[in-house]
């Protein structure tokens, strides 16, 4: 079975721009979560989508948003980019339940200049 | 306030010996714990998990121990191999109420030949 895929793998943007990242979950997985990894804060939860609905949300500003499509693929969007948004953005999928194991993709490295 | 703490940023072990990675948590609502391994420029790879109803779970060379009264868990790798060199993250979730993972800051394990 193919793993979680994320595109693009690398992105360079400038302050004020907006960016959209894409995630395709493992086949059969209906839940997709997004995490941000930075050297200072570590891995932090952004949000989770299940059946096209946001099921859970972390403590991030409204500039960070996401959505999920009927095929479980998910996108996250960051508007009005700030330098501090430079990070590795990781997507994780699981079958559906809260105790199902989350499997991570390789991440998208976003650099904001 | 960090709910999941990995107090050792790094650990160096000789090949063939035991590696013990430690993790402490503060939230008594956590009922599901996982260990992930991460190589640079890759997403975390799931290693092993344990539910709060157990105190030990084994999978090959990896064993996780949970001490609920001390709010402490540990990952034992026996025997350690050079390929185990990576950053190890401990994660926890309060599965009954929300499924997002709370991660520790990680421990970098170096296994020397």
Walkthrough of the structure:
The complex is a heterodimer of chains A (113) and B (113). With 113 residues, chain A is mainly beta. Chain A is 0% helix and 53% strand. In chain A, the strands form two sheets. In chain A, strands 2, 4, 5, 6, 9, 10 and 11 form a seven-stranded mixed β-sheet that branches. Chain A has a four-stranded antiparallel β-sheet with strand order 1-3-8-7, with no helix packed on it. The model of chain A has no long low-confidence stretch (mean pLDDT 93). In chain B, strands 2, 4, 5, 9, 10 and 11 form a six-stranded mixed β-sheet that branches. A five-stranded antiparallel β-sheet of chain B has the order 1-3-8-7-6, with no helix packed on it. The radius of gyration of chain B is 13 Å and the shape is globular. Chain B starts with a strand and ends with a strand. The mean pLDDT of chain B is 93. Chains A and B meet through β4, β5, β9 and β10 of A and β4, β5, β9 and β10 of B.
Question: What are the salient characteristics of this protein?
Answer:
heterodimer, A: 113 residues, mainly beta, seven-stranded mixed beta sheet, B: mainly beta, five-stranded antiparallel beta sheet
In short:
With 113 residues, chain A is mainly beta.
Uncertain stretches of chain A: none
Pairing-aware structural class of the strands and helices of chain A? mainly beta
Largest sheet of chain B: 6 strands, mixed
* Count of distinct strands of chain B: 11
**How many strands of chain A?**
11
How would you describe the shape of chain B? globular
Q: Indicate the proportion of strand residues of chain B.
A: over 45%
Mean pLDDT of chain B, to the nearest integer, reads: 93
Distance separating the two termini of chain A:
37 Å
**Largest β-sheet summary of chain A:** 7 strands, mixed
Number of helices of chain B: 0
What level of helicity do the residues of chain B show?
Answer: under 10%
Oligomer: heterodimer
Overall average pLDDT of chain A = 93
Of all protein chain pairs, which has the greatest interface, and how many residues does each chain bring to it?
A-B, 26 and 25 residues
